[in-house]
Amino acid sequence: MDMHDTRNSLDEETRTKSIQLLNARLADAIHLAMQLKLAHWNVRGPHFLQLHELFDTITDSVREHVDMIAERIGALGGVAQGNLKSVSGNTSLEDYPEDLSSGVEHTKRVASALAAFGGTVREDIEKAASIGDVATEDLLTEVVRDIDQRLWFVEAHLQSDS
Questions:
Q1: Which of 5, 19, 31, 95 sits 20 to 30 Å CA-CA off 55?
Q2: Distance from CA of residue 22 to its chain's centroid?
């Protein structure tokens, strides 16, 4: 793996492992943001405006995570791999179906994507802790905390009053 020179106090092996896991989550986060935009553009139905705005708000949040993850990679001396080929080859998320239209269909699919992303981030929190990169662990904890809250917002649309 190509790395830039840095005075970062983490040893090269730790930085290499952290960069690898962060690039995997970067691919997922970029893919998730793309999925959220598909939902935003294509949602229809009686709750259109509310879901349209919700999906856009969550997209903005995920894009902030993309930037934080990419900048952490740079801080460790790595190269953020965020082009289309890298993302499509490294994402662990399922593709988002382009034939959905109803608010319920999109809401369920967005909830699944957020839950899947949150799950992989949680796994990487443990990996970052096991290799001794507490700053990456902290960053990923911040990401998953936000994703959990966004998932709650989305899932609330699937729950009835009864």
A1: 19
A2: 11
pLDDT tens digits for 64-80?
A: 999 999 999 999 999 99
Distance (Å, rounded) from C-alpha 83 to C-alpha 91? 12
Residue 22, domain member (yes or no): yes
Judge whether 101 and 44 are in contact, CB under 8 Å: yes
| pLDDT(138) > 80 | yes
Q: Which amino acid is at 78?
A: G
Query: 1: pLDDT confidence band, cut at 50, 70 and 90?
Result: low
CATH of the domain at 51: 1.20.1260.10
The answer to whether position 145 is within a domain reads yes
Residue 143 lies in a domain: yes
